[in-house]
Design brief:
With 389 residues, the protein is of the alpha+beta class. It has four helices and 19 strands. The protein folds into two domains: 187 residues, Efflux pump adaptor protein, beta barrel domain (Elongation Factor Tu (Ef-tu), domain 3, Beta Barrel), CATH 2.40.30.170; 90 residues. Helix 1 packs antiparallel against helix 4 and helix 2 runs antiparallel to helix 3. The protein starts with 6 loop residues before the first helix and ends with a helix.
Length: 389
């Protein structure tokens, strides 16, 4: 048989248990409240000031072209008899590139030579006739003085001398014209052999053997020779940025095939005449770059960076941590005593970062802003589910 607990003992037991339970409930409520308040407080995004390199640049897209190139054409018409080079071949100045069929031009040269010989023979004959006319004039003038000849005979002899002299002058002029024609046709005959006007590489071939070329209207192009040792970037810069550039400014670019490598150069020229593409005004800016490795090729697309200003190994801060304030900037620095405002002066800046001149030191932590509210929202949901006392 179970013996009942005396009332006195039970009352003493309840006096100790109830206060302990109440204290535990109160402590749990306070701890939960602090936890959820901390969960509801958004954290701060921060960044540490570090040393590094910074650049202020203007970017543009461009194309690669050889700096020096020439379209080798023909100055005479005819059938392209031989082409002695192929695309990719290296040539020296004076090397034979191609040959035009010389038959027609050689025939013209021989005809001119024969015509010139005929004129020279006529000149010899006319000089002999002039000498004869002069002799007759001199003899008749002596006879006239001795009254053994008539005056009209002397006048006829004088006219004959003048006519012979005029014929000789005309023939000499014809000889000069024939010599000029012969020289021109000899030159044209020489033009049937086309030589390289410069050292370089054959980068394009526009005509093939057997093709008939007509030089009467425009010079047909046989091949293009380019010096690939130096390439030129033709970068298209918008009218909003062109005023910030000038000749001699440093620049670098990357190619689509090798974006990790930078090619450095300087602005050689800003072209004054723009190109208008879909109502967008673009100016061509030329940059020369050494290509002795032959890694750059014609018409490659490049991304160009024009360096307006640069600094190396300087303190750098994110722009999102700097707020404009009068003539300087203001930053919030996280210290052991809490957040402290700082006035900051900056130097070189770009879209994301700025060089720190005064106000911040490497190693200090600046506030960028607050984290996402996702964590706070989760805390609020938990707080709404906690039991109420």
């Amino acid at each position: 048989m179970t013996m009942p607990i005396p009332n006195k003992r039970r009352n003493s037991y309840l006096r100790w248990v109830i206060p302990i339970v109440v204290l535990l409930l109160i402590a749990g409520s306070v701890a939960a409240q602090k936890y959820f308040q901390k969960a509801n407080t958004p954290a701060l995004r921060t960044s540490v000031i570090e040393r590094g390199d910074i650049e202020q640049t203007v970017t543009a897209l461009g194309k690669l072209k050889p700096r020096d190139y020439v379209d080798v054409g023909t100055q005479v018409s005819g059938q392209l008899d031989r082409v002695h080079v192929r695309v990719g071949q290296t040539v020296q100045r004076g090397d034979l590139i191609a040959e035009i069929d010389p038959t027609v031009h050689a025939t013209r040269v021989r005809n001119d030579e024969a015509n010139l010989e005929s004129l020279k023979a006529q000149l010899t004959q006319q000089q002999a006739e002039l000498n004869l006319s002069r002799s007759q004039l001199a003899r008749n003038m002596r006879l006239l003085e001795a009254r053994a000849a008539r005056q009209d005979v002397v006048e006829e002899n004088r006219a004959a001398v003048e006519v012979a002299t005029a014929r000789i002058a005309s023939t000499k002029a014809q000889i000069k014209a024939a010599e000029a024609t012969l020289a021109g046709n000899i030159a044209n005959l020489g033009f049937t052999k086309i030589h390289a006007p410069m050292d370089g590489t054959v980068v394009d071939e526009s005509a093939v053997e057997g093709q008939t070329v007509n030089a009467s209207q425009s010079a047909p192009v046989i091949v293009r020779i380019a010096d690939l040792q130096t390439m030129t970037v033709w970068a298209q810069v918008s009218e909003a940025d062109i005023m910030r550039l000038q000749a001699g400014m440093p620049a670098y670019f990357t190619t689509l095939g090798n974006p990790g490598r930078r090619w450095h150069g300087q602005i050689r020229q800003l072209m004054p005449t723009p190109e208008i593409i879909n109502d967008v005004v673009l100016y061509n800016v030329l940059i020369d770059v050494d290509n002795s490795e032959q890694a750059l090729m014609t018409d490659m697309t490049v991304q160009v960076f024009f360096v307006l200003a640069a600094a190396q190994q300087v303190p750098i801060a994110p722009l999102s941590a700097l707020q404009p304030h009068d003539d300087v900037y203001q930053a919030r620095v996280l210290t052991d005593l809490g957040l402290q405002p700082r006035q900051v002066r900056i130097g070189v800046s770009n879209r994301t970062s700025a060089q720190i001149l005064e106000g911040l030191e490497p190693g200090e932590t600046v506030v960028l802003g607050q984290l996402s509210t996702a964590r706070a929202t989760t805390g609020q949901q938990r707080a709404s589910m906690r039991p109420r006392l």
